[in-house]
């Protein structure tokens, strides 16, 4: 990238700092997560999935049963913005549903599926 020098009209090359892992924190070691702590993400719990033709979907009515691709008692997937980050089981806490995490996906595996 080039930038015009206003003094003599000459073109000079722009210089940028290194964008490697140490550039994010400025300390050379850890990434500063404070920059993203307030970013909202969508957390979803997936019980299972089903595929059906639109004809069958339009025929659904109250009381209809949709068979999912998961067995009863299998762990739920915990998704953040559509990427599985963990698995867990449903629990009830103070009359509200919750999830107890039983397995957390490694950071390496999460990054592979985020692409």
Which helices and strands occur, and which strands form pairs?
Elements: E1 2-4, E2 11-13, H1 21-25, E3 43-46, H2 54-58, E4 76-80, E5 83-93, E6 96-104, H3 107-114
Antiparallel strand pairs: 1-2, 3-4, 4-5, 5-6
Structural features, described:
The structure is a single chain. The chain has 115 residues and is an alpha+beta fold. The protein has one domain: Surface presentation of antigens (SPOA), CATH 2.30.330.10. 16% of the residues lie in helices and 30% in strands. It has three helices and six strands; from the N terminus they run E-E-H-E-H-E-E-E-H. The chain has a four-stranded antiparallel beta sheet. A two-stranded antiparallel sheet has the order 1-2. Strand 1 and strand 2 (11-13) form a beta hairpin. The chain is elongated, with a radius of gyration of 24 Å. The mean pLDDT is 82.
In short:
This protein is an alpha+beta fold and 115 residues long. It has one domain (2-114): SpoA-like (Surface presentation of antigens (SPOA)).
